[in-house]
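Because discrete structure vocabularies remain unfamiliar, we first show an illustrative case, written as a sequence plus integers encoding its fold.
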Amino acid sequence: MKQIHLHVIDSTNTYAKEHVAQLASDEITCISAEGQTAGRGRLGRHWVSPVGVNIYATFCFQLPAHTLHLTSLALVMASSLATVLIHEGLHPKIKWPNDIQLHGKKLSGILCEIQFIQETAQIFLGIGINVNMEAEHLASIGQPATSLKIETGNVWDKNEFLQKLQNQFTIDLGKFKQHGFAPFHDLYENLLAYRGETIRCFDGKKHWEGICHSITEDGQLNLYLPNHQMHIISSGDLY
């Protein structure tokens, strides 16, 4: 995996897209930064990005456009991070589709952007992880959030942690290329936050309410509606 580490930029995803022509097409390039001035989350949300305390990174690589379950790559990254956290003795949950929680508070978010060029999919898989973020910065996020430091009381080596995530994702991407989302389904579903609870979801057009039931084989959300029907949500935001 090729490494590009920068000081403060607008956004690692934006940087990756602007420099994609200079990146190797046959390997993963991980672009990381000490801080971001215009960090982005899903649905255009601002990502709070103080300098020097967290992980801000984008994994840039190419896959064939017909790759199985291509749109579930963010869920694969969520599974990779969850695996690393479990190895560290922590107990993460995954808020569908790709937020990682500890004790019900957001630790990490993932943003996957895909550009198609003929038969090739250019992947920009961005991730932000709150590592050594302090309570005052966490309070500005606008939703319950936490950091590894807050949860454990320890200062973490963010570069070492990123290396562990890179190693795990490299393994997981290899599995994904062969089998799609299937190898990650059970782990993801076992860690699914709010499973069995009534939740609300906005799919971009309509608000839904039902029981968070399970995950489909390709990573979509099964929502059990009050009329006893199962509704599949392919993309949405839980609230």
Observations:
- Residues 198-238 form a domain with the SH3 type barrels. fold (CATH 2.30.30).
- The chain is about 25% helix and 35% strand.
- Helices lie at 12-18, 73-87, 135-138, 148-152, 158-179, 182-190.
- The chain has two domains: 2-190, 198-238.
